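Working notes for the structural subgroup meeting. M.R. asked for a predicted model of this chain before we commit to crystallization trials. I am recording the input and output together here so anyone reviewing the notebook later can reproduce the run.

Input as submitted:
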Amino acid sequence: NVVASLNISNTINNVFNIVFIALGDSVAIIVGQLLGAGDMKKARDTDNKMIAFSVMCCTCVAMVMFVMAPLFPMLYNTNDEARELAKYLIMITAFFMPQNAFLHATYFTLRSGGKTIITFLFDSVFIWCVSVPIAFVLSRYTGIHVLVIYACVQLDPEPVNTLLFFNVDPLITDLYFSFFHQMADRTLECVLAETKLSLDDFR
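Returned structure, recorded in token form:
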């Protein structure tokens, strides 16, 4: 059921992820051009605006995705348990979409500035040295529900690492952390409303 639900959720996730992927690529192109022209002030200002725009767009897309979460799994010929699990996986992904938009935009900002070593660390090393081991340990050596594991893997320390290496506008970072601190409990309660889990499982 878990594999089936992941396949269902990944299908719609890939459709909606196009938004922040395209916006991240546009950051690399536009900011890279400005950096190449030597206009550092304009490059920084444009980058901050594009990061904010990406996060706002993906917040709206995430809301649509959250609403569609109960409907999309109904298109698949599978059992009710897989559909229910897929619904919650889509909701969790929707919740983290603004975060992914922020990370993707800052990641391509680093790439536009030629920070290849840092982007390599974020793109490959971090996944294999942090995300994959966390998922493996939680799935093999704990009795935590798959939804909690999925959320833990999504909510990793990469945003903090990105902010340490790339000093974006403080207003953007404040808005980013304020948004997730205020919305986390409310969204998780909504996702887990029909399960036997509680927010204590995430702490």
